[in-house]
């Protein structure tokens, strides 16, 4: 979601509270752009294993008036418990966590290889990293949404500078992708 100029703080406040009609109360996360792609907020909400789209507008008009644009995509991923643990949504997170949010489009015939590379955990990392890969079902023009959570900016910097870390394997993952967009973010909700 991108805020109308001058309304980012108001939109942030509106997005922090999950819709009371949400199908899975408490199963959501709101990330706020720090550096990277052209969005202000990334809202991920667990809708359950089946979901029906209602054609009536779901966002209150107050939220719509604060939003310049938004791009909705339905994805599949791990169970909420695994997602929440990796993203420290369950209260286990520390203040100051950094999230690396990336969308990837696979090259033709390379979807499985890109998925495997993005899902690969770095057992040699010097810092703890929560990692989740969500697979596109319907919506945006990308194949995967990969999110990594670092406990701090220092952990992020350490992981990026570690020659044995996954950060050094960018050339491997680039063999299987036609494009990607990275954004660094912090978490607004849940607190």
Highlighted features:
191 residues; alpha+beta; 7-stranded antiparallel β-sheet; two-stranded antiparallel sheet; 6 helices; 32% strand
Number of helical elements: 6
Major sheet: size, sense and barrel closure?
7 strands, antiparallel
Mean pLDDT, as a whole number? 89
User: What structural class should be given to the helix and strand makeup?
Assistant: alpha+beta
Account of the 3D structure:
This protein has helices at residues 8-16, 61-64, 80-87, 111-119, 153-161, 170-174, and strands spanning 2-3, 28-36, 41-45, 67-69, 74-76, 98-106, 129-138, 144-150, 177-189. By secondary structure, the chain is α+β, with helices and mostly antiparallel strands. Strand 7 and strand 8 (144-150) form a beta hairpin.
In short:
With about 190 residues, the protein is of the alpha+beta class.
Question: What is the fold's blueprint, element by element?
Answer:
Blueprint: E1 2-3, H1 8-16, E2 28-36, E3 41-45, H2 61-64, E4 67-69, E5 74-76, H3 80-87, E6 98-106, H4 111-119, E7 129-138, E8 144-150, H5 153-161, H6 170-174, E9 177-189
Antiparallel strand pairs: 1-4, 2-3, 2-9, 5-7, 6-8, 6-9, 7-8
């Amino acid at each position: 979601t991108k805020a109308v100029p001058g309304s980012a703080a108001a939109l942030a406040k509106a997005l922090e509270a999950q819709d009371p009609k949400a199908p899975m109360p408490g199963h959501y996360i709101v990330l706020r752009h720090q550096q990277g792609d052209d969005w202000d907020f990334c809202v991920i909400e667990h809708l359950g294993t089946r979901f029906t789209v209602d054609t009536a507008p779901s966002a209150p008009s107050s939220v719509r008036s604060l939003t310049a644009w938004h791009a909705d995509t339905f994805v599949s991923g791990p169970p909420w418990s695994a997602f929440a643990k990796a993203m420290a949504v369950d209260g286990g997170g520390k203040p100051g966590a950094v999230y690396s949010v990336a969308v990837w489009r696979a090259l033709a015939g390379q979807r499985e290889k890109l998925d495997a590379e993005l899902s690969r955990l770095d057992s040699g990392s010097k810092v703890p990293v929560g990692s989740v890969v969500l697979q596109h079902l319907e919506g945006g023009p990308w194949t995967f949404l990969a999110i990594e959570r670092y406990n701090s900016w220092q952990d992020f910097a350490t992981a990026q500078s570690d020659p044995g870390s996954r950060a050094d394997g960018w050339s491997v993952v680039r063999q299987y992708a036609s494009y990607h967009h990275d954004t660094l973010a912090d978490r607004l909700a849940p607190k």
